[in-house]
Amino acid sequence: MIKCHLSRIMGERKLKIVDVARETGVNRGTVTRLYHETASRIELDVIEALCLYFDCQVGDLFEYQSDSDTGSF
């Protein structure tokens, strides 16, 4: 599974979903789904906009975690 750290990053900077959406141009619904980790896919331009806005690398936003504990792929 892919873990999204957007909520942690936003919390550290005391940002709201609407602030990030407005400043990055990313759809508010997309930011909300990433924040709550319910997104099933994401466009590369969204990742790029978030990385530029937060001055971070893709690996700072997303992390791969093995599902080996559950036995699924």
Describe this structure in words.
It comes from Vreelandella vilamensis. The structure is a single chain. This protein is mostly helical. The protein has one domain: Orthogonal Bundle (434 Repressor (Amino-terminal Domain)). Strands 1-2 form a two-stranded antiparallel sheet. α2 packs across α3. The longest helix has 11 residues.
What is the element string, with H for helices and E for strands?
A: EHHHHHE
Strand order of the biggest β-sheet: 1-2
Number of DSSP-assigned strands: 2
Helix content: 40-55%
Do you know the CATH architecture?
Orthogonal Bundle
Beta-strand percentage?
5-15%
**Alpha carbon gyration radius:** 13 Å
Number of structural units classed as domains: 1
CATH evolutionary superfamily: lambda repressor-like DNA-binding domains
The average pLDDT score comes to 93
**CATH fold call:** 434 Repressor (Amino-terminal Domain)
What is the CA–CA distance across the termini?
A: 8 Å
- Class by alpha and beta content: mainly alpha
Number of helices: 5
Low-confidence stretches: none
* CATH class placement: Mainly Alpha
Which word captures the global form? globular
The main β sheet shows up as: 2 strands, antiparallel
